[in-house]
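Translate sequence into structure tokens.
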Amino acid sequence: QVQLVDSGGGLAQAGGSLRLSCAASGRTLSNYYMAWFRQAPGKEREFVARISWSSGSTAYADSVKGRFTISRDNAKNTLYLQMNSLKPEDTAVYYCAARIALRTTYDYWGQGTQVTVSS
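Result follows.
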């Protein structure tokens, strides 16, 4: 099975930046999509961004377009989320996830990392 460990969360000022990482192990990822989700206090989990491991194609939620960048390092089997121009509404627990490319359900999840953005 794919095992995911996410990290890199912390406290940032509005307008600042953070980079989240997600280390994957256990399987090759060439047939997978990997993604970031987040869950803010009192709200439902929402999609943030995803990437095709093989092609590198990306997709983003409208709320983060132009500010966040999802990427991967194939040699390290590591997923990243570069977050710039952070806003207080970005405060949430962020989770990395993985799924078989042709599926819609993400079957593997990291433990979550807290991102807090102050005004």
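Note: The mean pLDDT is 95.
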